[in-house]
Amino acid sequence: VQGSYVFNRVFDDSYSQQDVYEGSAKRYVADFLGGTNVTIFAYGQTGTGKTHTISGPSADPGVMSRCLTDVLAGVPSTGKELYYEYVQIYINDVKDLLVDQGSGSGAPKPVERKDGSVFVQNITSSRATSVRKILDDVEAGAKRRATRSHDMNAVSSRSHAVLMLRLVEPGKEPCEAVASMFIVDLAGSERVERSGVTGKAMEEAVAINSSLLCLGRVVVTLLENQSSGGSFVPYKESALTYILKAGVGGNSKTALIACVTQAADSMSESLNTLRFAMQASHVKNKVEKKEAKD
Question: Which GO terms describe its biological process (predicted)?
Answer without folding.
Answer: microtubule-based movement; mitotic spindle organization; spindle elongation
